[in-house]
Design goal:
about 575 residues, Oligo-1,6-glucosidase, domain 2, Immunoglobulin-like, eight-stranded parallel beta barrel, about 25% helix, binds 1-deoxynojirimycin
């Protein structure tokens, strides 16, 4: 039987940019709490909230100074408890962000570690003597520019940091670090959180000999941006090391009694390597970053997603966008055409085994905010002038028309972007059936009525080539995406008695002779003749009390898509 996170729909909340309840321009926990009914109404099942812990904010919260409290800028622990209670009351799960690879340099452990080589917490971090020439111990580089090592004069050693110098790496060969994180997890699960998203889950362990990373063959970095320089190495010795999954095996014992999910940010693109984290008793789930990388290209989408499904199945989470990568709408062309494609692509992700994830604002059809260079807040661009940072994807949410877009009554910490307008706000879209918001809501509602999409039913790939990508689930549901090849609408013959459960646009048509007309940049969900269908009302009544097995038994008895019935035919609402 599937666990609660398999088939769930997730929603990433970037806390700084979601909703500001105080007017100081920064999103906060009470702001999120106010918006929970909006999220429940949208039809998501779980929220992932980015770090809200006390932090100097060198990397906007991914530099944690206290793993067990709330930064006053975001509220108080009581606000979080109230948020969790409300979320649970609305049927939403709450996933928080755990950052175990590194802490802040302001964490008491690191402050103590700096006091001397024999300090109590010295070994909580990764220290090495200088190389014979006095330089860093090896050639590892930081994701954010410069070497992955900073020299500490007073104690004469280098400490390692895969990100900023203000984010020293924790030493996962130290048993007390293991114990500390078991305790942190256990505390949060006892406080009611339903799971953790594990930051850079592939990075915790380093090569025991700290060998240099080989340079990749080829022309080398195209420019001196941190991304290019980091990408010019084969990260054979600093990332994805043997032994890292053992950490999660251990954490499972802490998570299981609470039915809590361990969801890894495993930034490993090769399907087999990613699968290693999810096999047996490793992580419960992991993000597939292929889903954030693929271009608007049918062959690429088909082969990349298929390979991941075949290697890892329902253990995967499929982000449409994230706070670290360009939004899907931008990746797929920007503006309204990009947003249309993003909705079509998300519809396809909703057809895969596992958990599709929206990033805040995806449901509004947002592409990246257009910002001036001098607005830069991301440490990547602040430290490396000219380097492309992540600010454009982090611009604040658009709730209502007006100067602060309902996000804040004050000055937002990051501008909204020159391309933002009132028509993109949630309130302007609410109730308009053609809006991105309503079409996303309809998609999620339809998905809930088709158990084959959420219960781990096996996936097959009925179309091997061409501009239409298709995934079929358990012989019951077919999800189709027309990526476009300038050839105009595709026509597909469906089995007699199929019905059109959802289409991203009303120009998708199912004709009386069972031919589907699917224009370019559109997606459709087809209930095949044998599909189990649970109506929304039935689902509402039973979902709270029944197990999936009981739900399935009920679904089998209710009306299935009938060959002559008109239910589900026609275009999108
Ligand atoms: C991944 C997070 O998503 C990103 O925002 C952060 O900068 C790095 N990990 C470092 O924690």
């Amino acid at each position: 039987m599937p666990r609660w996170w398999q088939g769930t729909v997730g929603y990433e909340i970037y806390v700084r940019s979601f909703a500001d309840s105080t007017g100081n321009g920064l999103g906060d926990l009470p702001g999120i709490r106010e918006k929970l009914p909006y999220l429940a109404d949208l039809g998501v099942d779980a929220v992932w909230i980015t770090p809200f812990f006390p932090s100097p904010q060198a990397d906007h919260g991914y530099d944690v100074a206290d793993y067990l409290d709330v930064d006053p800028a975001y509220g108080a622990l009581t606000d979080l408890e109230a948020l969790i209670d409300d979320a649970h009351g609305l049927g939403l799960k709450v996933i928080i962000d755990l950052v175990p690879n590194h802490s802040s340099d302001q964490h008491p452990w690191f402050k103590d570690a700096l006091t001397g080589r024999d300090a109590e917490h010295r070994d909580f971090y990764v220290w090495k003597d200088p190389a014979p020439d006095g330089g860093p111990p090896n050639n590892w580089v930081s994701h954010f520019g410069g070497p992955a090592w900073t020299f500490h004069e007073a104690t004469g050693q280098y400490y390692m940091h895969l990100f900023l110098p203000e984010q020293p790496d924790l030493n996962w060969t130290e048993p007390r670090v293991h114990q500390a994180f078991r305790d942190i997890l256990s505390t949060w699960f006892s406080r009611g959180v339903d799971g953790v998203r594990i930051d850079v889950a592939h990075s915790l362990v380093e090569d025991a000999q700290f060998r240099d990373n080989p340079k990749l063959d080829g022309p080398g970095p195209a420019d001196d941006s941190p991304q290019e320089i980091f990408g010019s190495f084969d990260h054979a010795h600093d990332l994805d090391q043997p032994g890292v999954v053992d950490i999660y095996r251990d954490w499972r014992e802490v998570a299981e009694p609470h039915e809590a999910v361990l969801l890894g940010e495993v930034y490993v693109l090769e399907p087999e390597k990613l699968a290693r984290y999810l096999q047996g008793d490793g992580l419960h789930a992991g993000f597939s970053f292929e889903s954030l990388k693929v271009e608007w290209d049918a062959e690429e989408i088909r082969s990349a997603l298929r390979a991941h499904v075949e290697a890892s199945g329902a253990g995967l989470a499929w982000p449409l966008s994230s706070h670290d990568d360009p939004r899907a709408a931008t990746r797929f062309g920007g503006g309204e055409p990009g947003a249309e494609r993003a909705l079509a692509y998300f519809t396809f992700l909703c057809g895969l085994p596992g958990a599709p994830f929206l990033y805040q604002g995806d449901e509004l059809g947002l592409d990246d905010g257009e910002l001036d260079d001098d607005a830069a807040q991301d440490p990547i661009s602040r430290r490396n002038p000219g380097a492309k940072g992540r600010d454009p994807v982090r611009t604040p949410m658009l709730w209502e028309p007006g100067p602060g877009f309902g996000f804040t009554t004050g000055e937002p910490w990051l501008p909204f972007g020159a391309n933002r307008h009132e028509g993109q706000t949630a309130s302007a879209q609410q109730g308009d059936p053609g809006s991105h918001l309503e079409r996303t809501r309809e998609l999620l509602a339809v998905r809930r009525t088709l158990p084959a999409l959420t219960d781990g039913s096996p996936a097959s790939w009925p179309i091997d080539e061409g501009a239409v990508v298709a995934v079929e689930r358990g012989g019951e549901v077919l999800v189709l995406l027309h990526v476009g090849d300038d050839g105009g609408p595709a026509e597909l013959e469906l089995p007699e008695g199929s019905s059109l459960a959802y289409a991203t646009h009303p120009d998708v048509l199912l004709l009386d002779d069972d031919r589907l007309v699917l224009p370019e940049d559109r997606a459709a969900i087809i209930a095949l003749p044998d599909a189990r269908v649970v109506t929304a009302a039935e689902e509402d009544e039973v979902a709270a009390d029944l197990t999936q097995a009981q739900l399935d038994a009920i679904a089998a008895e209710v009306d299935v898509a009938s060959p002559d019935g008109d239910g589900g035919r026609g275009g999108a609402a």
